[in-house]
Amino acid sequence: MQLQSFLRSFGKVAVVTVLVAGVPVVASYAQGAAAPAAPAPAGARIYGIDRSHSHLGFSIRHLLTRVDGRFKDFAGAVVYDPKAPEKSSVEVTAQATSIDTDTPNRDNDLRSENFFDVAKFPTLSFKSTSVKAVSPTKLDVTGDFTMHGVTKRITVPVEVMGTLPFRGGEKAGFATTFTLDRKDYSITWNRALDTGSALLGDEVTINIQLETGWEPPKPAETPKPSGR
């Protein structure tokens, strides 16, 4: 099955994040986003992100401590071959408006022009370009990350949590933690304090936990007799 066709099967929201969900890291995937036209390499399997058992989160300094948040609406897929991890890939897309810090007023501010400007930049996305095996359970995943209309190539460390059979298919787990400078993506709002420091930090810690699933192709249905 081609990855593009697989993602269409999610319907309207096959939205960020490889392991961001390739986020092995993988990111979610939105309908209409570009997807590879080539089928998965021989031996590789396409794992869809199980959003109900995955997490796309972040934290940033506020004054002296850190505030946590997450994106609730995301989807994507990982092409993964444990015997040839360098052939793996991942695409993820997240809906910026789904940001959630458990404080509605703050979330609305984050959606505004001060930060994500979701009306102009509705999604965040990650699309891998290469995967390097560092060890049997560690990958370096390089790809293009887009946020707030800015795209930069980044490399993130991904931990392969393993694979296991599940209900006739297979589950695969991936995790990553890395940091970004929000100013690199033109998210610059801040407020100076009397002490000379700033209200917010610039470094954002990203934490992604992905549970993904593969299902074997369904057998073709046998045509029913015409009845004649």
Architecture overview:
With 228 residues, this protein is mainly beta. It is 6% helix and 46% strand. It has an eight-stranded antiparallel beta barrel.
TL;DR?
The chain has 228 residues and is mostly beta strands. The protein is 6% helix and 46% strand. The protein has helices at residues 3-8, 104-111, and strands at 45-49, 55-62, 65-71, 74-80, 89-95, 99-100, 123-135, 138-147, 150-166, 169-181, 200-214.
Largest sheet: 8 strands, antiparallel, barrel
Q: Helix tally?
A: 2
Gross morphology:
elongated
First-residue to last-residue Cα separation: 35 Å
Question: What does the secondary structure layout of this molecule look like, with pairings?
Answer:
Elements: H1 3-8, E1 45-49, E2 55-62, E3 65-71, E4 74-80, E5 89-95, E6 99-100, H2 104-111, E7 123-135, E8 138-147, E9 150-166, E10 169-181, E11 200-214
Antiparallel strand pairs: 1-4, 1-11, 2-3, 2-11, 3-6, 4-5, 5-7, 7-8, 8-9, 9-10, 10-11
